[in-house]
Amino acid sequence: MRPENLLVPTPAGLCCPEGAFHIDPVRPVKRALITHAHSDHARAGHGAVLATAETLDLMRLRYGEGFAGTTQAVAYGERLTIDGTTVSFHPAGHVLGSAQIRVERNGLVIVASGDYKDVPDPTCAPFELVPCDVFISEATFGLPVFRHGDIATEIGKLMRSLALFPDRAHLVGAYSLGKAQRLIALLRAAGYDRPIFLHGAMEAITGYYAVRMDLGDLRAVRDGQKAEFAGAVVLCPPSALGDRWTRRFPDPIACFASGWMRIRARARQRGVELPLVVSDHCDWDGLTRVIPATGAREIWLTHGAEEALVHWCATRGLRAKPLHLVGYGDEEEVEVLEAATASSDQDASATDESAAGEPA
Ligand SMILES: [Zn+2]
């Protein structure tokens, strides 16, 4: 069997015709296998959804009970057969519940990794290297300029700023699923034990994480007084950094935790005073470490900067091609775009916490 026949790029997303399922479909389909709960991968409206229990729970939190016709939870490593095609889910190290999906038929193995990172994250299971014939990789940070560096250094920058400016609220823009909770866990691990305040759009997801791991003293911004925010860490969706919501804080410092913060112009453009290079995606080193380690003879690249990676693979004797799937991106980029679209025709919701920043 040729790999091109096992998984086929279609307008709805990657499709397995033999198993009659799609992986992370961007349009409603009969049967969807979902790698993780970020909104560009996990959409509502499918007939049947197969995903890890955490991904299903997070989708339920985001979309409500009726987000799919039926759901089935799968454990990491559990093998299921769908019309003669064997599938299993393996940790992707991206966010809680995130998985790479291994698809096998007639001895041919393709791994669709969704989004992934191979560096430690205290809030999710570590990335598992899954040997395969074809590895499908994201290329979000697929340029040599993207090197995320040591996360402890970035947390150290924030801790130093908190010590230097004890009267200023530190507003940290962070994606509300995964990034925010990882930052909280890292701050706690670094010894930061003061209350951490949450924007309304982060409460439910962070609450879900907090029953699974100790995230310390978490409080809602709407329950706090201005004086309490002095010198405090306040987590919010990146899009909230630019809106009226920030006026309630004393002399706020805008911080933004993202892999894009490696590019200084991006930080300046967005008025970020304290850029923190923190990403839940592989950087260039991670991508070029994982890709050859899978043993795959062929690499298919999805969203991001595919060209440099295609070239890099060629220099290593690996066949590589971009799949040109549409509808995926870095969560933060998607969020910023969606927030920009939403705010172009409204004003009132800019101060509505529940509406700010969360992708639809
Ligand atoms: Zn993601």
Automatic annotation (TrEMBL):
GO molecular function, a single term: exonuclease activity
EC number(s) per entry: 3.1.-.-
Superkingdom of the organism of origin: Bacteria
InterPro entries assigned: MBL, Metallo-B-lactamas, RibonucZ/Hydroxyglut_hydro, Xnuc_lig_assoc
Disordered: annotated segments: 339-360
UniProtKB keywords: Exonuclease, Hydrolase, Ligase, Nuclease
SUPFAM superfamilies found in the cross-reference section: Metallo-hydrolase/oxidoreductase
The Metallo-beta-lactamase domain, residue ranges: 8-175
Enzyme class (EC, first level): hydrolase
NCBIfam families given in the database record: Xnuc_lig_assoc
Record's protein name: Ligase-associated DNA damage response exonuclease
Species for this entry: Rhodoplanes tepidamans (Rhodoplanes cryptolactis)
